[in-house]
Every structure is written in structure tokens, then in C-alpha cells.
Design goal:
Length: 206
């Protein structure tokens, strides 16, 4: 019996090491406990391709306010970035679904008491088919990495996330508790951060 337990313990350790190595040695690569994914729809036909919507995204366009709110919850913006290398912000199978991605914008948010941290990303892809593939990839064995400045206590594995294909764009919002062991309601934080994607509606009217 003891021998069997020892063998199981060794297998668990080996599996853990293998997973760590598969993730490139990055312990910050985590998946949220709750995740929803939505493909693009005909509503976004005017921006279904980059050819129809050629202007690059800007930080000022996507993140115009210093905070986002929903219900009685407000999260302040802590930092933004615009990257040309889309692969820099994802891990795993998501890296295989980035063909034609020219930019990704990301912003990091947190509640004033520091109990909740979140981020919002938007990927600029070639067309809606590519956007749908990336959203599907986020349901597989890969996801996005925490934004720079995310607290060490951020527990993304207990977080909530939403990915949406909006024409040739993909938005992803992800919130989670930022204090180890803290019990927080993520409903309004998720709604607040995910609401940043509404900015894309303006591009339908151009």
C-alpha cells in the first residue's frame, strides 16, 4: 500500500513538472474558472474585415476613461499598452490562432480596495473568421497572460472571463480576486471591464 502511494505521489510531481514546462516555465499562465465565448454575428458585417475597417486601434479610443463602473463597483485604470506582437500576451494553443493579428491593446484595472484585479484586451485580426478561431482557441489549452502590474495575489484560476468576436476584432475581459483567499463577488467587476468592448460599436457607424 505504501509503495502504491509513493508511486502516485511521484506521478503527481512529474505531471506538475510537465505542465509547468509545457507552459514555458511560466507559473502565471492560468485559466479562469468561469469562461464564456461568443463568435461574431452579422451585426458586425461593416467591420467584418480589416479592409473594411483599416484604421488601427488606439489606446485613447479604446480606454477613454480613468475608470469603469457597473452597479456600485468601480475599477480604476492602472495601466495601458499597445503591442504589435500579439503572441506576447497569450500562451498555449492561443498562440496558434494569431495569424494576421497586427496589434493588441490591453488595459489593467483594479478596485480601490485592491480586492479585485482585471484586464481588458482587444486583438486586431484580418477578418471575422480569424476572430472566431481565436475565440475558439481561448476555450482550448491556452489563454491570455496577466497584464503588467497585476498584483502577485491575483488568482486568475478563480476568475471570470469573456471573449467576443466583434467583426475582425476579439475582445477579452478577465477579472479575479487579487487577495489570496478573499471571497469577492465578481459579477459587477466583470460587467464593468467587459463593457469596454462597446467602444467598437462606434466603428460600425463610420
Amino acid at each position: 500500500m505504501r509503495k502504491w502511494i509513493a508511486v502516485v505521489a511521484v506521478l503527481v510531481v512529474v505531471a506538475g513538472v510537465a505542465a509547468f514546462l509545457w507552459l514555458g516555465g511560466d507559473a502565471s499562465a492560468a485559466r479562469p474558472a468561469t469562461f464564456r465565448a461568443e463568435p461574431s454575428t452579422a451585426h458586425y458585417a461593416p467591420i467584418a474585415t480589416r479592409a473594411l475597417d483599416p484604421d488601427p486601434l488606439t489606446v485613447a479610443e479604446m480606454f477613454p476613461g480613468a475608470s469603469v463602473s457597473a452597479g456600485e463597483v468601480t475599477l480604476g485604470r492602472k495601466g495601458t499598452e499597445a503591442l504589435d506582437d500579439c503572441a506576447e500576451v497569450v500562451w498555449g494553443s492561443a498562440q496558434d490562432a494569431l495569424a494576421g493579428c497586427t496589434q493588441v491593446l490591453r488595459a489593467h484595472y483594479a478596485t480601490a480596495d485592491g480586492t479585485v484585479s482585471g484586464q481588458f484586451l482587444i486583438f486586431n485580426l484580418a477578418d471575422s473568421a480569424a476572430a472566431d478561431r481565436l475565440v475558439a482557441a481561448f476555450k482550448g489549452d491556452g489563454f491570455v497572460r496577466p497584464a503588467p502590474g497585476t498584483p502577485e495575489g491575483f488568482d486568475g484560476s478563480r476568475g471570470w472571463a469573456q471573449a467576443r468576436a466583434l467583426g475582425h476584432y476579439v475582445t477579452l475581459s478577465w477579472v479575479g480576486p487579487a487577495v489570496p483567499g478573499a471571497k469577492v463577488d465578481l459579477t459587477y467587476p466583470q460587467v464593468a471591464v467587459d463593457g469596454l468592448g462597446l467602444v467598437i460599436q462606434r466603428r460600425l457607424l463610420r
